[in-house]
Amino acid sequence: MMSYEVKVATLPRGLPQPADLTVVPAPVPSAAAGEVLVRNRFFTVFAALRTLLGGVQGAPMPPLRVGDTLFGPAVGAVVTAPADSGLRPGDLVQHMLGWRTYAVLPPGRWRPAGAELPDPVAHLAQGTTAYGALTRAAAVRPGDTVFVSGGAGSVGSMAGQIARLLGAARVIGSTGSAWKAARMPGYDAVVVRGETPIADQLAKAAPGGIDVVFDNVGGADLRAALDLANPGARVALVGALSGQLDPAGNGGEAPVEIDTYRLILRQVSMTGYSAHGDDRIHAEWISRFAGWLRDGVITFPYHRVDGIEAAPQALHDVLTGRHLGTMVVAV
Protein backbone atom coordinates (compact mmCIF):
# COMPACT_ATOMS: atom_id res chain seq x y z
CA MET A 1 0.00 0.00 0.00
CA MET A 2 1.08 3.56 -0.63
CA SER A 3 0.05 6.80 1.01
CA TYR A 4 0.10 10.26 -0.55
CA GLU A 5 0.59 13.61 1.15
CA VAL A 6 0.21 17.22 0.01
CA LYS A 7 3.33 19.15 0.97
CA VAL A 8 4.56 22.73 0.66
CA ALA A 9 6.85 22.91 -2.39
CA THR A 10 7.59 26.65 -2.23
CA LEU A 11 6.43 29.43 0.03
CA PRO A 12 4.03 31.58 -2.03
CA ARG A 13 4.40 35.22 -2.87
CA GLY A 14 0.91 36.60 -2.68
CA LEU A 15 -1.98 34.14 -2.89
CA PRO A 16 -0.83 30.50 -3.08
CA GLN A 17 -0.83 28.92 -6.52
CA PRO A 18 -1.28 25.18 -7.24
CA ALA A 19 2.42 24.91 -8.10
CA ASP A 20 3.32 25.97 -4.54
CA LEU A 21 2.07 22.57 -3.36
CA THR A 22 3.10 19.09 -4.40
CA VAL A 23 1.52 15.64 -3.96
CA VAL A 24 4.14 13.07 -3.01
CA PRO A 25 4.06 9.34 -2.24
CA ALA A 26 4.98 8.14 1.23
CA PRO A 27 4.97 4.81 3.06
CA VAL A 28 1.84 3.97 5.00
CA PRO A 29 2.65 5.02 8.58
CA SER A 30 2.53 2.65 11.52
CA ALA A 31 0.63 3.42 14.70
CA ALA A 32 2.49 3.18 17.99
CA ALA A 33 0.93 2.14 21.28
CA GLY A 34 -2.16 4.22 22.04
CA GLU A 35 -2.39 5.66 18.52
CA VAL A 36 -5.09 5.23 15.88
CA LEU A 37 -4.32 4.65 12.20
CA VAL A 38 -6.99 5.91 9.80
CA ARG A 39 -7.44 6.05 6.07
CA ASN A 40 -8.84 9.44 5.26
CA ARG A 41 -12.05 9.59 3.27
CA PHE A 42 -12.65 13.35 3.13
CA PHE A 43 -10.92 16.55 4.17
CA THR A 44 -11.76 20.23 3.86
CA VAL A 45 -9.80 23.05 2.28
CA PHE A 46 -10.00 26.25 4.32
CA ALA A 47 -8.94 29.84 3.68
CA ALA A 48 -6.87 30.17 6.87
CA LEU A 49 -4.17 28.06 5.20
CA ARG A 50 -3.25 31.30 3.42
CA THR A 51 -2.17 32.73 6.77
CA LEU A 52 -0.18 29.62 7.68
CA LEU A 53 1.57 29.60 4.30
CA GLY A 54 2.39 33.28 4.83
CA GLY A 55 4.56 32.41 7.81
CA VAL A 56 2.44 34.38 10.29
CA GLN A 57 3.42 33.79 13.92
CA GLY A 58 0.92 33.79 16.77
CA ALA A 59 -1.97 32.19 14.88
CA PRO A 60 -3.85 29.33 16.61
CA MET A 61 -2.04 26.88 14.31
CA PRO A 62 1.68 26.82 13.48
CA PRO A 63 2.99 28.32 10.22
CA LEU A 64 3.77 25.97 7.33
CA ARG A 65 7.25 25.70 5.88
CA VAL A 66 8.73 24.09 2.79
CA GLY A 67 8.46 20.31 3.11
CA ASP A 68 5.63 20.40 5.66
CA THR A 69 2.47 18.39 5.03
CA LEU A 70 -0.67 20.53 5.09
CA PHE A 71 -3.35 19.73 7.64
CA GLY A 72 -7.00 20.43 8.34
CA PRO A 73 -10.36 18.92 9.30
CA ALA A 74 -10.86 15.39 8.00
CA VAL A 75 -13.01 12.30 8.36
CA GLY A 76 -11.19 8.96 8.26
CA ALA A 77 -12.01 5.27 8.61
CA VAL A 78 -10.19 3.38 11.34
CA VAL A 79 -7.60 0.84 10.15
CA THR A 80 -6.15 -0.07 13.54
CA ALA A 81 -6.93 1.19 17.04
CA PRO A 82 -6.02 0.35 20.64
CA ALA A 83 -8.25 -2.26 22.26
CA ASP A 84 -9.38 0.21 24.93
CA SER A 85 -10.27 3.00 22.47
CA GLY A 86 -13.78 1.77 21.77
CA LEU A 87 -13.02 1.88 18.05
CA ARG A 88 -13.25 -0.88 15.50
CA PRO A 89 -11.86 -1.08 11.97
CA GLY A 90 -14.16 0.87 9.66
CA ASP A 91 -15.45 3.25 12.32
CA LEU A 92 -15.32 6.90 11.26
CA VAL A 93 -13.49 9.56 13.26
CA GLN A 94 -12.91 13.29 12.90
CA HIS A 95 -9.45 14.77 13.24
CA MET A 96 -7.14 17.53 11.96
CA LEU A 97 -4.69 15.52 9.83
CA GLY A 98 -6.24 15.85 6.41
CA TRP A 99 -4.23 16.39 3.22
CA ARG A 100 -2.85 12.81 3.32
CA THR A 101 -4.18 9.35 2.53
CA TYR A 102 -3.31 7.76 5.88
CA ALA A 103 -2.92 9.49 9.22
CA VAL A 104 -1.70 8.39 12.65
CA LEU A 105 -3.70 10.05 15.42
CA PRO A 106 -2.28 10.45 18.93
CA PRO A 107 -4.57 9.94 21.95
CA GLY A 108 -7.01 12.79 22.39
CA ARG A 109 -6.57 14.06 18.83
CA TRP A 110 -9.71 12.48 17.38
CA ARG A 111 -13.42 12.24 18.10
CA PRO A 112 -15.98 9.73 16.79
CA ALA A 113 -17.88 10.76 13.68
CA GLY A 114 -21.13 9.14 14.73
CA ALA A 115 -24.10 8.04 12.69
CA GLU A 116 -26.32 10.88 13.93
CA LEU A 117 -25.61 12.77 10.70
CA PRO A 118 -26.97 11.11 7.55
CA ASP A 119 -23.85 11.71 5.45
CA PRO A 120 -20.27 11.41 6.80
CA VAL A 121 -19.31 14.53 4.85
CA ALA A 122 -21.72 16.55 6.99
CA HIS A 123 -19.29 16.16 9.91
CA LEU A 124 -17.08 18.61 8.02
CA ALA A 125 -19.69 21.35 7.97
CA GLN A 126 -18.18 24.48 9.52
CA GLY A 127 -21.20 24.98 11.75
CA THR A 128 -19.59 24.76 15.18
CA THR A 129 -18.07 28.24 14.90
CA ALA A 130 -21.22 29.73 13.42
CA TYR A 131 -23.47 28.12 16.02
CA GLY A 132 -21.19 29.03 18.92
CA ALA A 133 -20.86 32.65 17.84
CA LEU A 134 -24.59 33.08 17.28
CA THR A 135 -25.54 31.52 20.62
CA ARG A 136 -22.67 32.83 22.79
CA ALA A 137 -20.59 35.72 21.49
CA ALA A 138 -23.45 37.54 19.72
CA ALA A 139 -26.54 35.65 20.78
CA VAL A 140 -29.42 35.95 18.32
CA ARG A 141 -32.77 36.93 19.82
CA PRO A 142 -36.20 36.48 18.23
CA GLY A 143 -36.89 39.32 15.82
CA ASP A 144 -33.25 40.35 15.31
CA THR A 145 -31.80 41.59 12.05
CA VAL A 146 -28.55 39.71 11.46
CA PHE A 147 -25.74 40.55 9.05
CA VAL A 148 -23.27 37.83 8.01
CA SER A 149 -20.21 39.02 6.11
CA GLY A 150 -18.67 36.43 3.83
CA GLY A 151 -22.03 34.69 3.72
CA ALA A 152 -21.17 32.35 0.85
CA GLY A 153 -18.10 30.71 2.39
CA SER A 154 -17.76 27.56 4.44
CA VAL A 155 -18.71 29.27 7.71
CA GLY A 156 -21.01 31.97 6.36
CA SER A 157 -23.14 29.55 4.33
CA MET A 158 -24.01 27.83 7.62
CA ALA A 159 -24.29 31.03 9.70
CA GLY A 160 -27.13 32.50 7.65
CA GLN A 161 -29.23 29.38 8.06
CA ILE A 162 -28.43 29.04 11.76
CA ALA A 163 -29.36 32.67 12.45
CA ARG A 164 -32.76 32.07 10.87
CA LEU A 165 -33.33 28.91 12.91
CA LEU A 166 -32.38 30.75 16.11
CA GLY A 167 -35.19 33.25 15.54
CA ALA A 168 -33.78 36.07 13.41
CA ALA A 169 -36.48 37.98 11.56
CA ARG A 170 -34.19 39.20 8.78
CA VAL A 171 -30.85 37.79 7.66
CA ILE A 172 -28.53 39.68 5.31
CA GLY A 173 -25.29 38.39 3.85
CA SER A 174 -22.40 39.72 1.80
CA THR A 175 -20.37 38.10 -0.95
CA GLY A 176 -18.12 39.09 -3.83
CA SER A 177 -20.12 37.23 -6.48
CA ALA A 178 -23.54 37.88 -7.98
CA TRP A 179 -23.67 34.19 -8.92
CA LYS A 180 -23.27 33.19 -5.28
CA ALA A 181 -25.69 35.88 -4.12
CA ALA A 182 -28.49 34.17 -6.04
CA ARG A 183 -27.76 30.79 -4.41
CA MET A 184 -26.90 31.49 -0.77
CA PRO A 185 -29.31 29.61 1.55
CA GLY A 186 -31.10 31.31 4.43
CA TYR A 187 -30.73 34.96 3.38
CA ASP A 188 -33.44 37.57 2.85
CA ALA A 189 -31.02 39.89 1.06
CA VAL A 190 -27.42 39.76 -0.13
CA VAL A 191 -25.07 42.68 -0.80
CA VAL A 192 -22.36 42.18 -3.41
CA ARG A 193 -18.93 43.75 -2.98
CA GLY A 194 -17.64 45.58 -6.04
CA GLU A 195 -20.96 46.57 -7.61
CA THR A 196 -21.93 49.73 -5.72
CA PRO A 197 -20.58 50.85 -2.33
CA ILE A 198 -21.39 48.13 0.18
CA ALA A 199 -22.48 50.73 2.74
CA ASP A 200 -25.21 51.97 0.38
CA GLN A 201 -26.38 48.44 -0.41
CA LEU A 202 -26.47 47.45 3.25
CA ALA A 203 -28.41 50.58 4.27
CA LYS A 204 -31.13 49.61 1.78
CA ALA A 205 -31.13 45.96 2.87
CA ALA A 206 -31.36 46.85 6.60
CA PRO A 207 -33.51 49.99 6.87
CA GLY A 208 -34.22 49.22 10.52
CA GLY A 209 -30.57 48.78 11.44
CA ILE A 210 -28.65 45.68 12.49
CA ASP A 211 -28.83 43.85 15.82
CA VAL A 212 -26.24 41.10 15.30
CA VAL A 213 -23.11 41.16 13.15
CA PHE A 214 -21.38 37.87 12.35
CA ASP A 215 -18.17 39.17 10.83
CA ASN A 216 -16.07 36.80 8.79
CA VAL A 217 -14.42 39.45 6.58
CA GLY A 218 -13.52 42.71 8.32
CA GLY A 219 -12.69 45.66 6.07
CA ALA A 220 -15.50 47.57 4.42
CA ASP A 221 -18.07 44.93 5.34
CA LEU A 222 -17.47 45.38 9.06
CA ARG A 223 -17.29 49.16 8.85
CA ALA A 224 -20.61 49.36 6.98
CA ALA A 225 -22.31 47.01 9.44
CA LEU A 226 -21.11 48.97 12.48
CA ASP A 227 -22.44 52.20 10.98
CA LEU A 228 -25.90 50.56 11.00
CA ALA A 229 -25.61 48.91 14.42
CA ASN A 230 -28.65 49.43 16.62
CA PRO A 231 -28.31 50.29 20.32
CA GLY A 232 -27.18 47.20 22.17
CA ALA A 233 -26.05 45.41 19.00
CA ARG A 234 -23.75 42.41 19.38
CA VAL A 235 -20.79 41.76 17.09
CA ALA A 236 -18.95 38.43 16.79
CA LEU A 237 -15.57 38.64 15.06
CA VAL A 238 -14.89 35.18 13.65
CA GLY A 239 -12.73 35.71 10.55
CA ALA A 240 -10.53 38.12 8.64
CA LEU A 241 -10.96 37.24 4.98
CA SER A 242 -10.24 40.80 3.86
CA GLY A 243 -6.67 40.25 5.04
CA GLN A 244 -6.32 36.55 4.29
CA LEU A 245 -7.35 37.05 0.68
CA ASP A 246 -5.31 40.21 0.08
CA PRO A 247 -2.60 39.33 -2.49
CA ALA A 248 -0.45 42.21 -1.24
CA GLY A 249 -0.32 40.99 2.36
CA ASN A 250 0.75 37.84 4.16
CA GLY A 251 -2.71 36.88 5.41
CA GLY A 252 -1.88 37.83 8.99
CA GLU A 253 -3.64 41.16 9.44
CA ALA A 254 -6.93 42.80 8.51
CA PRO A 255 -6.90 46.47 9.58
CA VAL A 256 -10.10 48.50 9.48
CA GLU A 257 -10.91 52.00 10.75
CA ILE A 258 -14.04 52.21 12.90
CA ASP A 259 -15.72 54.96 14.93
CA THR A 260 -15.37 53.71 18.49
CA TYR A 261 -17.18 56.74 19.92
CA ARG A 262 -20.32 55.74 18.05
CA LEU A 263 -20.01 52.21 19.43
CA ILE A 264 -19.75 53.57 22.96
CA LEU A 265 -22.83 55.74 22.57
CA ARG A 266 -24.83 52.80 21.21
CA GLN A 267 -23.35 50.36 23.74
CA VAL A 268 -22.32 47.95 21.02
CA SER A 269 -20.37 44.90 22.18
CA MET A 270 -17.66 43.26 20.06
CA THR A 271 -16.25 39.82 20.84
CA GLY A 272 -13.58 37.81 19.07
CA TYR A 273 -14.78 34.21 18.93
CA SER A 274 -13.39 30.79 18.10
CA ALA A 275 -14.96 27.42 18.87
CA HIS A 276 -11.64 25.62 18.35
CA GLY A 277 -11.24 22.86 20.92
CA ASP A 278 -14.60 23.48 22.61
CA ASP A 279 -16.04 19.95 22.81
CA ARG A 280 -19.16 21.11 24.63
CA ILE A 281 -20.13 23.51 21.85
CA HIS A 282 -19.31 20.88 19.23
CA ALA A 283 -21.56 18.28 20.88
CA GLU A 284 -24.39 20.80 21.21
CA TRP A 285 -24.01 21.80 17.57
CA ILE A 286 -24.03 18.22 16.29
CA SER A 287 -27.23 17.50 18.24
CA ARG A 288 -28.98 20.61 16.85
CA PHE A 289 -27.59 20.04 13.34
CA ALA A 290 -28.80 16.44 13.26
CA GLY A 291 -32.30 17.48 14.29
CA TRP A 292 -32.44 20.30 11.75
CA LEU A 293 -31.25 17.94 9.01
CA ARG A 294 -33.94 15.40 9.91
CA ASP A 295 -36.54 18.17 9.77
CA GLY A 296 -35.25 19.35 6.40
CA VAL A 297 -34.74 22.95 7.56
CA ILE A 298 -30.98 23.21 6.96
CA THR A 299 -28.56 22.19 4.22
CA PHE A 300 -24.80 21.75 4.05
CA PRO A 301 -23.58 23.58 0.92
CA TYR A 302 -20.31 22.12 -0.32
CA HIS A 303 -18.34 21.52 -3.49
CA ARG A 304 -16.65 18.13 -3.80
CA VAL A 305 -13.55 17.29 -5.81
CA ASP A 306 -12.28 13.72 -6.14
CA GLY A 307 -8.71 12.59 -5.55
CA ILE A 308 -5.95 14.00 -3.38
CA GLU A 309 -4.18 15.18 -6.53
CA ALA A 310 -6.96 17.77 -6.92
CA ALA A 311 -6.17 19.39 -3.56
CA PRO A 312 -3.61 22.02 -4.70
CA GLN A 313 -6.07 23.43 -7.24
CA ALA A 314 -8.85 23.22 -4.67
CA LEU A 315 -6.95 25.55 -2.33
CA HIS A 316 -6.50 28.07 -5.11
CA ASP A 317 -10.22 27.84 -5.89
CA VAL A 318 -11.11 28.54 -2.27
CA LEU A 319 -8.84 31.57 -2.07
CA THR A 320 -10.21 33.00 -5.32
CA GLY A 321 -13.83 32.41 -4.28
CA ARG A 322 -14.74 30.09 -7.10
CA HIS A 323 -17.30 27.93 -5.28
CA LEU A 324 -20.15 28.28 -2.77
CA GLY A 325 -19.85 26.72 0.67
CA THR A 326 -17.21 24.30 1.90
CA MET A 327 -14.59 22.75 -0.37
CA VAL A 328 -14.35 19.00 0.29
CA VAL A 329 -11.69 16.69 -1.16
CA ALA A 330 -12.71 13.03 -1.40
CA VAL A 331 -9.45 11.11 -0.94
Structural account:
It is a single chain. This protein has 2 domains: 155 residues, Alpha-Beta Complex (Quinone Oxidoreductase, Chain A, domain 1); 146 residues, 3-Layer(aba) Sandwich (Rossmann fold), CATH 3.40.50. The chain is 25% helix and 25% strand. The chain contains 10 helices and 15 strands. The strands form 3 sheets. Strands 3, 4, 5, 6, 7, 14 and 15 form a 7-stranded mixed beta sheet that branches. It has a 6-stranded parallel beta sheet with strand order 10-9-8-11-12-13, with helices on both faces. A two-stranded antiparallel sheet has the order 1-2. Helix 2 packs across helix 3 and helix 5 packs across helix 6.
Record keyword descriptors for this entry.
oxidoreductase, NAD(P)-bd_dom_sf, alpha/beta, Quinone Oxidoreductase, Chain A, domain 1, globular, 10 helices, 2 domains, GroES-like_sf, ADH_N_2, Rossmann fold, six-stranded parallel β-sheet, single chain, 15 strands, NADP-dependent oxidoreductase, 331 residues
Structural shape: globular
> In percent, how helical is the residue content?
25-40%
Number of helices: 10
Radius of gyration: 20 Å
- Percentage of residues in DSSP E strands: 25-35%
Largest sheet: 7 strands, mixed
State the CATH architecture of the largest domain.
Alpha-Beta Complex
Mean pLDDT: 96
What is the H/E string? EEEHEEEEHEHEHEHEHEHHEHEHE
Helix/strand/pairing category: alpha/beta
Beginning-to-end CA distance, first to last residue: 15 Å
**Can you tell me the CATH topology of the largest domain?**
Quinone Oxidoreductase, Chain A, domain 1
Total domains, how many?
A: 2
| Uncertain runs | none
Number of strands: 15
CATH class of the largest domain: Alpha Beta
